[in-house]
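Predict the 3D structure for this chain.
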Amino acid sequence: HRGIVTYQLSPYEMKTNAHLISKGTHNFFRRTSSQLGYILPGIFLFWAVTHFGKKRHEWLNSKAGHAAQHEHEH
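Done. Predicted structure below.
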């Protein structure tokens, strides 16, 4: 039997996703909800900075923004 390679999975490896739908969704929501206090401030901060940056960029590229820029330069 030279040159013949066989592979075999143990029963523990074969059923890694057996209860993914029934228990996985419950665990996902349980774990996520316990971490919301850590996740939400970062998401809110990212949204606030992005929102402010977009509004500031729009204003700077408007007539009013250009006029205000030129007033401060002189």
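The radius of gyration is 28 Å.
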